[in-house]
Amino acid sequence: MAGHKSESRVSKVDSETTWDLFLSQATNQARPVVVHFTASWCMPSVVMEPFVDELASIHHDILFLLVVVDEVKEVASKMEIKAMPTFVLMKDGVVVDKLIGANPDEVNKRVGGLIN
Predict the structure, then answer these.
(1) Local structure of 34: helix, strand or coil
(2) Which pTM was predicted?
(3) pLDDT band with cut points at 50, 70 and 90 for residue 6
(4) DSSP string for 55-105
(5) What angle do CA 101, 106, 112 make, to 5 degrees?
(6) Quick one: DSSP state of residue 116?
(7) Using N-to-C axis directions, what is the helix angle for 43-58 and 104-114, rounded to 10°?
(8) What domains lie within the chain, and their CATH numbers?
(9) Helices H, strands E: what count in the chain?
(10) DSSP three-state, residue 11
(11) Segment 51-105, tens digit of pLDDT
């Protein structure tokens, strides 16, 4: 089928329980994590979703998560998310970098730095 979207490698967080589960799995597997905090009403965030999907298809050794802040307010609050999009990069369960704004080049650079 033309234009059919392939399965995304970005996992959507739908609850605080799922968040905790994803993070503990990533920590146990020593996998870095990139979290895209988004909102459906924030066009810059929505525009970044295909870019994040593309990054996830390239970097198989990183766990990519999508958090829709209005659906999982507890996680957004716990992570002190104040603006969208926000990208949080984590290693061993700890935040190592945080980037606010729709800047594909900078996100790409920082994701690259996460695995080097």
Answers:
(1) strand
(2) 0.92
(3) low
(4) HHHH-TTSEEEEEETTT-HHHHHHTT--SSSEEEEEETTEEEEEEES--HH
(5) 130
(6) -
(7) 40
(8) 10-114 (3.40.30.10)
(9) 4, 5
(10) strand
(11) 999 999 999 999 999 999 999 999 999 999 999 999 999 999 999 999 999 999 9
